[in-house]
Amino acid sequence: MTDIAIKTRDAIDVEVHLPGSKSYSNRALLIAALAKGTSTLSGLLESDDTKVMKNALQHMGLEFSINDEELKIYGCEGTLKEPGEDLFLNNAGTATRFLTTTCALINGTTIVTGNERMQERPIVDLLDGLKQLGVDCQSKTGCPPIKLIGPSLVGGLTKISGKISSQFISSILISAPYAQKPVIIEIKDELVSKPYIDITLDIMKTFGINVINKDYMEFHIPLGCYQACNYNVEPDASGASYFLNAAALTKGKAKVYINSDTVQGDFQYFKALERMGCHVKVSNSFIELEGSALKGIDIDMESIPDMAQSLAVVAAYAEGTTRITNVYNLRVKETDRLDACYNELKKMGIDVEQTRDSLTIHGGTPHGAHIDTYDDHRMAMAFSGAGLVTEGIVIKDAGCVSKTFPTFWDLFGELS
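-> structure tokens emitted (416 positions)
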């Protein structure tokens, strides 16, 4: 798939069933792999990122079987084999960060690396945290490739920065039960994206490891072994945003099925659209949104940064100014997402400003444009909504959505 020209629509009226959450899928894959016994995962997301995780685990000796859309994982009880070749993880940030700690459990030498963009994404805070736990890890640039020699996850206390990515903390949390002594993680500054920590702790608890969380500033992880279980991966809350946006922009309706008791932070995105003027109904099993006249808002998106691109596109059509703040870590994602949003909104004729950690969008009358996606799935999906109400929107390299949502264009094409 190359470029997609979006067709404008009148007010949509749609019901959407979402695929499994990438955040839950990758965590469940790794934790089930480390567990004792055979786990059955259902609802697992099939995407480029989850394939990267599965392939890496297979290189470390894990075995899987698939039956009736369920994946069985035969757990290794924390005993992984040396891959025998570099672990190439493309631009999968979750897999790269999580497996960096896991590879410290392996008896031998492992190289964790990725594509050109992955080799620009900083991981030095994680490496600093791991070295305090005894891990023998080296990087020439503070980014992948990373050389790990193990087993070297001794344990003890580590003081780590949480300002760049909560995945550094999740990485240590997931593998910490297999250290030689209990691990304590102390956040030495601030922790961004706390809801993703909640996801990690939620799955760890389901598989039998209970972490003491002291107000997201200190985590105590006991020694132990995950216990296999049957696990159903819940729908992806971030995917809901693109269909809620479609309703908001066309002044239509969207009903998206997802449980309201989810700990996924991106579930809360609907509140931003509600503040902008949309009418929202939330039940135990779905969110229903009806679009209305949109107005600009000021919003701190530190806890849900992956939703910033979605909101930026809606803001382009709102009356007044929208300020999205506290999202510096978007600069170290699949692309520099702040810069990418700035460039593409400008291309559509929108007055927009950026700082180190914010984006200010002055609502207007966007015009058609060919939208560059920067090999970033969220750029493609976020800007798709613009094409529903503006003639001439073309999403370039639209196949990049396969990273997390391979069926996106099929579902988007059914909007009516």
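The chain has two domains: 4-19+235-413, 22-221.
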